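seq as requested:
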Amino acid sequence: MQLNNVTFHVRGGILDGVVDTLNSTCSCWEFDIDKLPCVHAIAVVQKGNFNLYSLASPYYTKEYYTLAYEDTIYPMSSQSQWNIPDKVTAWIVKPCEVKERKAEMLEISFSGRE
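struct tokens:
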């Protein structure tokens, strides 16, 4: 449902989302954290007259990628020459738990009616 010119309420998925296309944010926070459109923002783009790429952060553009690697990156020395503190080698790092999510249809209405 369109709340105003730039804000939309999207129902569906794991939770509903309120997307602000002007500030590139969503109440699900995925859009805010990743700086890439979440499923709610994509639903708004599909139903409205929005450019999906304009909602993504410029950090994902070719220009920014090129600038990130503009300076020289020096190779690491041989692993046998690394000086790693004992407290760091003692760390146990486990992978994150990943929950599988099912794709669900999202519902958005621009008419103001649900």
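The two ends are 7 Å apart (CA to CA).
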